[in-house]
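ARCHIVE CARD
SHELF: 3
SLOT: left
DATA:
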Amino acid sequence: MAAEKTIRLTMAQALVRHLAAQYIETPKGEERLCAGGFGIFGHGNVICLGEALYQHRDELPLWRGQNEQSMALAAIAYTKAKLRKRFMFATASAGPGTTNMLTSAAVAHSNRLPLLLLCGDTYATRLPDPVLQQLEHFNNPTTTVNDAFKSVTRYWDRITHPAQIIQSLPVAIATMLDPADCGPAFLGLPQDVQGWAFDYPVEFFERRVHRIRRQSADTREIADAVALLKSAQRPMIIAGGGVQYSEATEVLKNFAESHGIPVVETIAGRANMLASHPLNCGAIGVTGSNSANALGEKADVILAVGTRLQDFTTGSWTAFARDARIIAVNVGRYDAGKHRALSVVGDAKLALTELHQVLGDHRAPATWRDFAQTERKAWLDYVAGNTRAPDQTGANSALSYAQVIGAINDVCDPRDRIITAAGGLPSELAANWLTKGIGTVDVEYGFSCMGYEVAGGWGARMAQEEEESDKETVVFVGDGSYLIQNSDIYSSVLTGKKIIVIICDNGGFAVINKLQNNTGNVSFATLIKDSRLAVAPFAVDFESHAKSMGAQAETVTSIASLKEAFARARKADRTYVISLKTDPYEGWTKEGHAWWEIGTPEVSDRAEIRKAHAEVEQGRTKQRPGI
């Protein structure tokens, strides 16, 4: 019997070589599964893993970030834009470089997105302990800071022998490609083990082509769902982010049209349908629309497709009638089984096709569609007024988020990609943005991560250039999030990945100040001017700050000048930042909100707080009981 062919490599070399040999089937053909990665080197990853990555720098390009958290966020935005078909890795040294990525791992986990984390770790031999940046646990020397990632990853392993990656790395990849279990995978790489050699079987490095699994639903679940849909007098579809990951947007549209069922979108599902489609009745929930929430209150059967039904979608489970029946179509059993739902566990594209075939020519009652159309028109009329600036020519006064969003909506290309995250912008964009192109909106509200915006724009730009290099990546960010994480403006300029950044400066964390005031509290430590200061409050010169990082930038004071600046930004050859003042008090979208459960003090000296508490408790009476 012939001896098995082997090749002697270090663990780090084998890991990178295996990663470079993985491909995936996409509509464009076979592409490398891992598109490369982001890295900040330190003593925990530069010598061994860095050497291996250098050898494969063409196959797996490495982008140097400015902050470990932001570079992992960029990787997340990349894979989201690629509909989870390709992923990127992020590598950091042992200690604080690694712990900086905990937040990013939580973003990927919450949003069901693949991210490979390759993090330095303390020595497996423990001979030099304690080493630089090592956090010692006196009663358990096997514990390092890397153990913190167990709560925010789908797969976790520490490689203590070079042979381990023969099993561990393929399982990590399989986890990231599993539609039901998709999420971040973490490999802790002790500094000594990275350089240890092993005789690896050559088969471990053979080219492999992966496919994303499409799971058909159980025929009995389909039959039960069809029976319930046929009994419905007021059916409604909630379209979540899973619709896009399943590449089911066209199937969803055809299903809704064939059966006359109105569609509402979650925040993650924004841009599942064009705003112009007559069955698209807007975003639902806490940051939703009057039209979608009016449907939610009356619907007797709700077909929830590709959504985990988080509280902003359900209005903390007050947005629906208490006796409404839910059909949950989801590739994940966990998400399909929530809140007394009739579960249809399977791929959204296949499940909708199967439901359509069994439903035949069944259509929802025309009176229900008429009601949906009336509500839709009223909401679109409201948005038109809400986004229209009273002064189109130029007074130097703060604008509203809605007016800024409406202005960019007017002038952007249908295929421009729109990105935002935490603060007030997600709710304002969810309510007021009118989708021009399918799959063009990325609102990170699964973990609501401040600082995602600019970093996400950098990563999304990399993905967008692979598909539509002549379109723009447009980032909406508040001054609060910008100050938390902005260094990837510099990264984008250095790497030639142009983004357009709209900074809305409202003087701090204005949406949280609004929440404070709406619950009877005084403004405290949310707006800059209401914080403990040693000097008079002042605004950051965002234009100069962006220019210092190599971007082109300007400050505008009106909607007219904003549109003119955006036209200049589109023609620019590098990242372009537009700064403007927005009103922290007035101009918030007042319509469309569902109830949201928040904790309020039962006891307070302030009458305003006691009043707000009573109002919150009154809203709770509509809450659908969970099981």
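SLOT: right
DATA:
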Amino acid sequence: MANDNDTFKKIIAHAKEYGFVFPSSEIYDGLSAVYDYGQNGVALKNNIREYWWKSMVQLHDNIVGIDAAIFMHPTTWKASGHVDAFNDPLIDNKDSKKRYRADVLVEDYVAKIEAKIEKEITKAAKRFGDQFDQAQFVATNPRVIAYQEKADSILKRLGQSLEKEDLDDVKALIEELEIACPESGSRNWTEVKQFNLMFGTKLGASAATAMDLYLRPETAQGIFVNFLNVQKTGRMKLPFGIAQTGKAFRNEIIARQFIFRMREFEQMEMQFFIPPGSQKEWHQHWKKTRLNWHLSLGIPAENYRFHDHEKLAHYADAACDIEFKFPFGFKELEGIHSRTDFDLSNHEKYAGKKLKYFDPDRNESYTPYVLETSIGLDRMFLAVFSHAFTEETLEDGNTRTVLKLPAVLAPTKVAVLPLVKKDGLPEQARQLVDMLKWDMATVYDEKDAVGRRYRRQDALGTPFCITVDHQSLEDQTVTLRDRDSMEQQRVSMAEIPALLAAKVNPKQWLLKR
């Protein structure tokens, strides 16, 4: 593709033009870092959520789901540590008056180093062709080694400084690296300060009696406060998990990169309750399981990587991210965290109520440890959408823009097209739509020449098109077109439901892993 920044702009424009994502309240000039999902976007988003839920809850007999309220008692956030420790390190540029996350400035600097490594690998791959051994090249090339050592050193220092809350050293690191304001190019920085990310609100009929509340900054706490409710009513035995999806809210000062970092977003989380001492084993298990879920969608493995945290959150004894190669570089997509017994112990302390589990096998009560998997639904949407966006030059010299979405996630699975709007073809096509729409998202499209309709469905990510023509009336066969290969085959109408189901059914995709 062309310049990654140009590609990303095209992706954002495509998302709007084809009804996937709109700027929120755009007629009033929008709201920074808030977006609405359009008619195709909500379908894709729902399909991603359902694919996650099916694999996480429906296919595990020891994981159940809940839907906790967004509003929670304010002491919840004191117990969880969010009131005291949910901060971002911010720095202002005195000349541009722009505010930035100090850690993100440093991470963006490191991303440029990593881009240089990628460039070296690409050049070497072209030079050596089929003989190229990437692993050996990365391990032995002096320039790549130097770049990697510099990147690792910077991230290690940043992590240690943030862990010790040494904000002076974070600023010193920014100055030593000569990081400039992206807007003005100025290096005239203020001190680094911490800023709490929670949105405050009030509950009550009058200002005098209203209770101060927070919009939840994560969905996990709704799971923890319901631990015993679920365990007892479901008669759950350890190990078991509780999953939920839902909105969370963070007052991100540096909200950017389209839907990657928003103020209102959706999470898909699962908290897995385990006996103390088994967290290392389960951490490895869920790292492998979650990566396999991502790979089941057919996106190549080189687009994913694990990143172990240098700086651990206040509740964790191990933390790892699955990072995805977005158009703007590798960034966090999903976190897999060993949360120890921090959450349940703290809620027990602040609520004054026991949250222990009686283990019949050990004949003792204890506070379970927790292994968390947490993925941003909006980030997953962006990962799938940006990877799917493809501009192709065809054999005849024409170009096409196609969304190569995994068929299991595509908003519309099949479009049915009558070749012409007469001779009984529309009626036959609509009969086919009526038959298919019970089992999969199906649309009828009769406007424009059939070639233009194919291009439109390509741009919408529809994996299959069925064309009903005059031969269809004679022998009940239709033309089935594949979006990615553009190959067409003649198929009996009676075979269509089973043929398509095999290609879009989540079972066929999840079993691949």
